[in-house]
Each structure stands twice: as structure tokens, then as C-alpha cells.
Write a structure and sequence with these properties.
Layout lengths: L37 E9 L3 E3 L5 E9 L7 E12 L3 E8 L2 E2 L16 E4 L8 E10 L7 E8 L6 E3 L18 E8 L2
Antiparallel strand pairs: 1-11, 2-10, 3-9, 4-8, 4-10, 4-11, 5-6, 5-7, 5-9
Amino acid sequence: MPLTKIQSLGITDGTIVNADINASAAIAGTKLSGAGKVLQVVSTVFNTTTSNSSNAFVTTGLSGSITPSSASNKVLILIQVGACGGSPSTAFRIFKDGSHLTGASGTAVSARIAVAFRSLAVQADDAHAASCSFAYLDSPATTSSTTYALHFLNQSTFTSHINRDGTNNDTALSYGSRTASTITLMEIAA
């Protein structure tokens, strides 16, 4: 039986219904490719509190892993720190597979260190906390699982806190509230 070509003008609206499109009629991933397309999304929520008074960069506990499908694809890193309190200033760096992702940081000059972003509280160890967000497009150049983690540094002798303020008061008021922080990783087609 010969195939007949159907012109799109010959299909009336409503002829093909949702029930006609099922799992066996899925669109091949290759048809959805193209530069700039989001190929996969991985998101992690971190809702535990953590503190740093070590005068060194330590992990916040917020991290996520993604396995790119092509070494030429990029990874968009989106970070939201729900609250950072305590220290007058907290600095953040992104680490990739355990090493500082220098491309996501500023430029170090003299004694001034390079960081991705920083949070500024109003006063040390008080009931104020600031939220921060950051985005960076990385080129991991791999098809292996890649882990991105957020590290933070306190200011001098003060202590920095994640997902809470500096006083840690047991109160139902807003300054006693706890927050969540998130990291979202998106594979972007090259």
C-alpha cells in the first residue's frame, strides 16, 4: 500500500488529541538539541545550619553533582544562600571537584583574596542575616560526574553562619527563623 503525504492544511483542529500522543510517540532527544538548550537540571536543597570561625574556607554543606552528556556542553551554576549571619562579612567561593573554581571568582590583588561573592551583615553576632544569590556558567570539559560545592570564610575573629542569624535566638519572630539554601545545576547544550 503506497504512503500518502498529508498536508498540514489537511488536518483539522482536534483531529489529533492528547490520547493519541503517548510514551511510544516520544520525541527523540536529538530533535530537541541545539545551542543554548537546557538538557538536564539537578537541584539540591540544604536546610541545615552550619558555622565557620576557623579563618579558612570550609564547606557550607551546599553541593550538587551533574554528569554532562557532552564534554563541549556547559553547566550553569545557580546558588541561593537563604541567610548568612553573624560575621560582619562572609566571603564565598565555588569549588569544583574539591578545587577552587577560580574562573568564578574575582581577581586577587596584593593581600586581597579572590572570591565569587560575599554577604554583608549589619553588625557582628546580631539578629541580622543577609541572603545572596550567584550565577556562573562553567565549561567542565568532561562527561564525568562533576561536583560543585559552596565554601565560606568568616571575617577575622567573628563567626559566620549559614541558614540562620548570628544570635540564634529561640523565638518565633522573623530574626529567629531558619532558611534553606539551594544549588541548581543546568547542563546547557554547546
